[in-house]
């Protein structure tokens, strides 16, 4: 599939940017709390397992490592806004400028019933560094998501090898526009695709069995929605235009009923 059609978002929710007061924190210590979670947006693989060994955050010139148990995450379990909390850390207040993910050697993808190792290029073995620009205020708990584009991050070579070249983005509560909705009937096997006006990037959601879908971490703006039915079902596609998205708000599109 085209990688623009599947933004498989492995959301690493860095719990430090929801800007909520934490009464359990000593404000005089000038610290902030950061939490991390993982989520996904869908790709048409049967499974995409990412091996994350360590997570650390860079505040000013210092690194702090989260209390985190290394594990494999199947990104396809985390679609439609689902997320896996990965940990949190208390850090000195200041400028949060980087998040670093240390990837292990056990990542793999399942395609056509076959398990294929995901090779991590040597340049990523020292840690995947994500740039940020966020000032942490004393006594405030924050939440940041890391959106891991699994489909765009997997490169299949000519000799049937799979290489992991991570494509990620970050967003926070204040830059988290959302679209929710439902598409029926389930037998239409529809995908939901959205594109922001003026952008060539397309995100795709694979609805749950009940037809519900969700896009998170969207930029402010106007979007075009396509309900893309599986051609073999004989159901017709449908579209919505001029769908507005606002940071920090949920745009509920209700239920789209496809017909033959």
TrEMBL record:
What species is this protein from? Haoranjiania flava
- Using the record, list the residue span of the signal peptide; answer none if the entry has no such feature: 1-18
Task: Give the record's keywords alphabetically.
Answer: Signal
Checking Pfam families in the record gives:
DUF4382 (PF14321)
Identification of the protein by name: DUF4382 domain-containing protein
Q: Where is the DUF4382 domain?
A: 31-166
């Amino acid at each position: 599939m085209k990688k623009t059609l599947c933004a498989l978002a492995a959301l690493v929710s860095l719990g430090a940017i929801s800007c909520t007061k934490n009464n359990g924190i000593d404000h005089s210590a000038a610290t902030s709390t950061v939490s991390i979670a993982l989520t996904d947006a869908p790709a048409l693989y049967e499974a995409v397992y990412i091996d994350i060994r360590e997570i650390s955050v860079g505040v000013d010139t210092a690194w702090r490592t989260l209390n985190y148990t290394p594990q494999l995450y199947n990104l396809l379990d985390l679609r439609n806004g689902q997320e896996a909390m990965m940990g949190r850390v208390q850090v000195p207040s200041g400028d949060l400028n980087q998040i670093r993910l240390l990837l292990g050697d056990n990542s793999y993808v399942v395609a056509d019933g076959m398990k294929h190792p995901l090779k991590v290029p040597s340049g990523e073995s020292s840690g995947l560094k994500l740039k940020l620009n966020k000032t942490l205020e004393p006594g405030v708990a924050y939440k940041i998501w890391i959106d891991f584009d699994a489909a765009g991050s997997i490169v299949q070579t000519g000799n049937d090898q799979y290489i992991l070249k991570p494509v990620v983005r970050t967003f926070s509560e204040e830059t988290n526009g959302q679209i929710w909705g439902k598409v029926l009937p389930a037998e239409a096997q529809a995908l939901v695709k959205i594109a922001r006006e003026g952008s060539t990037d397309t995100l795709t959601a694979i609805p749950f069995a009940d037809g519900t879908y969700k896009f998170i971490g969207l930029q402010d703006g106007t979007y075009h929605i396509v309900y893309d039915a599986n051609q073999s079902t004989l159901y017709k596609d449908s579209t919505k235009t001029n769908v507005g998205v606002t940071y920090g708000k949920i745009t509920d599109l209700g239920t789209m009923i496809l017909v033959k």
